[in-house]
Amino acid sequence: MGVSCGSQGKLTITDDDVIEKSNLSRQFLFRDWNIGQAKTTVAASAAVSINPQLKIEALQNRVGPETECVFNDDFWENLTVVINALDNVNARLYVDQRCLYFQKPLLESGTLGAKCNTQMVIPHLTENYGASRDPTEKQAPMCTVHSFPHNIDHCLTWARSEFEGLLEKTPAEVNAYLSNPSEYATAMRNAADAQAKDNLERILQCLEQEKCETFQDCVTWARLRFEDYFVNRVKQLTFIFPEDATTSTGAPFWSAPKRFPRPLQFSTTDPSHLQFIMAASILRAETFGIPVPDWVKNTKMLAKAVEKVIVPDFQPKEGVKIETDEKATSLSAGSVDDAAVINELLFKLERCRNNLPSGFRMKPIQFEKDDDTNYHMDLIAGLANMRARNYSIPEVDKLKAKFIAGRIIPAIATSTAMATGLVCLELYKVLDGAHKVEDYRNTFANLALPLFSMAEPVPPKVMKHRDMSWTVWDRWILRGNPTVRELIQWLKDKGLNAYSISYGSCLLFSNMFPRHKERLDKKVVDVAREIAKEDLPPYRSHLDVVVACEDDEDNDINIPQISVYYR
After folding, report:
1. 499 pLDDT band (50/70/90 cuts)?
2. What mean pLDDT is reported for the chain?
3. DSSP string over 49-101
4. Sorted alphabetically, which SUPFAM superfamilies does this protein's record hold (predicted)?
């Protein structure tokens, strides 16, 4: 197209990822010998070989709040247009907010299998990306996933949840507690709810009853975890709801789609049982920083290690509540005794912490589906298939499990090419300039139907007050390093009565608090430094505040963000 080929042109691309084998089937810039290399450097090199006049800079930075020192105000202000090629909503929302703030056109697109869509976000002409959201994806009820699965998707959803709970969330909670015990304890006491109690119970269990110091401890943990998941929990469930149980209306409790579960009998001669033990013990060892011995991959030696484990007999518990309401969103219920239990747990944790080595920390493990050597998918497939076996659900191989648990929808080069072509057509209009909103097109296409739907972008919502009007694209600017009083008076002159001023999550001023009057004659920037307790970056010359206002009839007026310049 000749973009960024002129003397003043420059194309900046950034991606913190490296090329994987699966990337080769859905684009045309990478080759198999590029696997393991940075995506941006390879893409830039390939593009320059197509057009040597292209001026391109390849970066390997993620775009987000943590890299605003790289993608600073000067960077954004010098852009002509931004083109998204992102794979998650949060990143899209962040870039959308940056483009909104700096008033830059954003060409947004996405693909999902045979579907693709493009959205034009043009300053002052269209609504922004974040102005509308897709409906949330429908999920299986919590009680179905945890106690009454009836297909492999439910088993894999449960397996993924258990993986994250055991290997990521709990170690992260342990580290949060150990990093600042007093602050963590205060937060738990202030919360005083079932979630806080669950967090503390998990930390205590991890550091006391289930603490691992040797690899044999990890094998023991894995074997007892098998017994808990696939034997004891099933026995407890069928103790509460026997096979002949009925509902309050007299109908059989275990009627379709519910499946009556049966406990498994662990056997070292079952390869799937040993595979589960191996994956679970290796990952448990990783969280505790314990070296993994070579013998774990030897079936006979692993079986001998498992046979050393003493498994206690199961005793059913009376009075256990198992959630059966499909509308329930949590399996934990609060109680009036939570505060007392939390205090007792914190006391036990403090005693436990004193017995830990100095500087002890765990290593949380984030699920990574694409590394076949990290045992993540081995554990998830093992968890799901053992659970499927409990409920007589057909099992799946590791590859199928990877597709479902990793929420993989195969990417199709045709969809990608179509989205790219549609975005590039709109890019001509953006670079040409001076186009009306009716000249642009948003597109939704589904190549499988086939369906091609093009529409004008939706204009932004206009808000009015007196003789003023503004949209989400507007930002008010106040220069001269004003005081809080001067900011309030500046708005008063516009017929707006400010009653609170916020900077990020910090409340700088509110007319509800008498003590805040002391801040009226302080500079806004000084109050922000004092309240937020952070230094403003040296590359910033202003801060952005959100002011809540009313008109003279006490009606709330949503005004634009205000940029207060202090130098």
Report:
1. very high
2. 91
3. HH-TT--EEEE----SGGGTTTS-HHHHHT-S-EE---SSHHHHHHHHHHHHH
4. Activating enzymes of the ubiquitin-like proteins (SSF69572)
**In this model, does residue 334 exceed pLDDT 70?**
no
Q: Is the pLDDT of residue 542 over 90?
A: no
Give residue 328's pLDDT: 62
Radius of gyration of the CA atoms of the chain, in A: 29
Q: Could you tell me if 283 and 375 are in contact, meaning their C-beta atoms sit under 8 angstroms apart?
A: yes
Tokens of 487: 């900011």
- The fraction of the chain above a pLDDT of 70, given in percent, is 96
**Annotation marks residue 352 as catalytic:** no
Distance between CA atoms of residues 120 and 97, nearest Å? 14
Report the residue count for the chain.
Answer: 567
Percentages helix, strand, coil for the chain, rounded to the nearest 5? 45, 15, 45
φ/ψ (deg, to 5) at 119: -135, 130
Q: Check if the beta carbon of residue 91 is closer than 8 Å to that of residue 63.
A: yes
Catalytic residue, chosen from 99, 116, 143, 549, is 143
Which H/E stretch holds residue 417?
Answer: helix 413-432
For residue 423, count other CB atoms closer than 10 A to its CB: 21
Coil, strand, or helix at residue 119? strand
Average pLDDT of span 460-485: 93
Q: Which two tokens stand for residue 481?
A: 């390093």
Residue 456: phi and psi, rounded to 5, are -65, 145
Contact 210, 221 (CB under 8 A): yes
What is d(CA 471, CA 125) in angstroms, rounded to the nearest whole number?
A: 10
For helices 271-288 and 299-307, the axis angle rounded to 10 degrees is: 80
Reported as a single tens digit per residue, the pLDDT across 345-363 is 899 999 999 889 988 999 9
**Non-local CB neighbours of 161 within 8 Å, separated by 6+ positions:** 145
Global pTM value: 0.68
What is the average per-residue pLDDT within 412-422? 92
| Helix (H) or strand (E) run with residue 144 in it | helix 142-147
CATH 3.40.50.720 is held by the domain 462-565: no
Contact (CB, 8 A) for 529 and 535: yes
Quick count: other Cβ atoms within 10 Å of Cβ 464?
A: 9
Cβ partners under 8 Å of residue 501, min gap 6: 484, 487, 488, 507, 508, 509, 510, 524, 545, 546, 547, 548
Domain limits, the chain: 11-134+410-455, 151-310+338-392, 462-565
CB 73 within 8 A of CB 89: no
Separation CA 299–CA 473 (nearest Å): 64
Asked if residues 218 and 291 have their Cβ atoms less than 8 Å apart, the reply is no
Cα of 142 vs its chain's centroid, Å: 19
CA distance 297 to 274: 10
Q: Where does 11-134+410-455 sit in CATH, by number?
A: 3.40.50.720
Model confidence at 65: pLDDT above 80? yes
What does CATH list as the number for 151-310+338-392? 1.10.10.2660
Q: With contact defined as beta carbons under 8 Å apart, do 374 and 407 qualify?
A: no
pLDDT of amino acid 372: 84
